[in-house]
Write a structure and sequence with these properties.
The protein contains 9 helices and 12 strands. Helix 2 packs across helix 8 and helix 5 packs parallel to helix 6. The model has no long low-confidence stretch (mean pLDDT 92).
Length: 323
């Protein structure tokens, strides 16, 4: 297990930094970014910030008409149909992008689901693992030739502090023996982190570096499967739905760490790292409270990352990242 790289770098930004703070002075003219979930919540903040810096932004969207409406005032932004829950749809979207792009400089995996009721996808996959991990795994593999062609691409994957809930359930990753929506979410977020570790190891010779991150606690559409009462009981909102938890970030603050991962020169030559609050996170001890921050060692373990990659490749029929 290698966690020596998981040490803060002394970033000039913090948990309070916004997307505007991080992107001030950043110039992305000529760059192409693909942003999943780029038409709502943190994804929309991310797409807006990248476009404002001059990047061409492509947003794969399950609801293309809604995406076009949300992005109508974002210059240089295109929408392609894609549903992360449907791997045929993911492959079709990737084929469309390969046909019209010659490179991708940034792949931002922002879309996701959280604490959903039990659902089965494909051959019986647990839906949170399928959407949050298998969908993005397949998309990144299918787009890898375009990432390699950039000669310095970055892949940024939204994980979560929720990864502390569980590692990968190797004996029962699809919860065939009993479903728990929070453990399923935690496993999917651990998978996101391990995916970045392995993709970085496989891609760095081609200049492809990958990072996972915890964006912070933000109230967005991600919580749509939770009832108002659940959110009240957790101390997040009041009876009117207003945020009352002082630890919550704004959407702009929530997007900041991903944008920092995509653009910071402090990360040049580094990868496979888990980030939070616009810096590299420390490794947290077993049993340490989730809200204390950090990343569990099992979520950045190269051996587990390689094992998950093989499991994912076998499940999805997607080959390893390659030109």
């Amino acid at each position: 297990m290698t966690t020596t790289g998981q040490q803060p770098l002394g970033s000039p930004f913090s948990a309070a930094s916004t997307a505007e703070d991080v992107m001030s002075g950043v110039e992305l003219a000529g760059a192409t970014a693909v942003v999943t979930g780029g038409y709502s919540g943190l994804g929309l903040e991310t797409a807006r910030a990248l476009a404002a810096a001059g990047a061409r932004v492509v947003v794969p969207a399950r609801r293309p008409s809604a995406a076009r409406a949300a992005l109508r005032d974002v210059p240089g932004c295109d929408v392609v149909p894609m549903d992360l829950a449907d791997l045929d749809s993911v492959r079709a979207a990737a084929a469309r992008l390969r046909a019209c792009l010659d490179r991708i400089d940034l792949l931002m995996a922002v879309a996701g689901v959280m604490a959903t009721p039990e659902r089965r996808l494909g051959p019986g996959w647990e839906s949170q693992l399928a959407v949050n991990h298998f969908g993005h795994f397949t998309l990144a593999c299918e787009l890898y030739p375009l990432l390699a062609a950039a000669g310095g691409a970055r892949v940024v994957v939204n994980s979560s502090a929720g990864h502390v809930l569980t590692g990968i359930r190797w004996d029962d990753p699809h919860f065939t023996t009993g479903y728990d929506k929070w453990l399923a979410y935690g496993q999917a977020k651990t998978a996101n982190a391990l995916f970045a570790v392995r993709l970085d190891a496989l891609g760095q010779d081609d200049g492809v570096r990958a990072y996972a991150l915890h964006p912070g606690r933000i109230l967005t559409g991600l919580q749509r499967e939770m009832t108002r009462q659940e959110q009240i009981e957790r101390g997040w909102v009041d009876e009117h739905g207003n945020v009352v938890d002082a630890g919550f970030k704004t959407p702009s603050q929530g997007a900041a760490t991903g944008l920092w991962a995509a653009t910071s020169p402090l990360l040049d030559g580094r990868g496979g790292l888990y980030l939070e609050d616009c810096d590299v996170a420390r490794v947290s001890a077993p049993g340490q409270p989730m809200d204390d921050g950090g990343v569990r060692a099992y979520a950045v373990d190269p051996g587990s990352a390689a094992r998950l990659w093989e499991l994912s490749a076998a499940a999805t029929g997607t080959g390893p990242a390659r030109r």
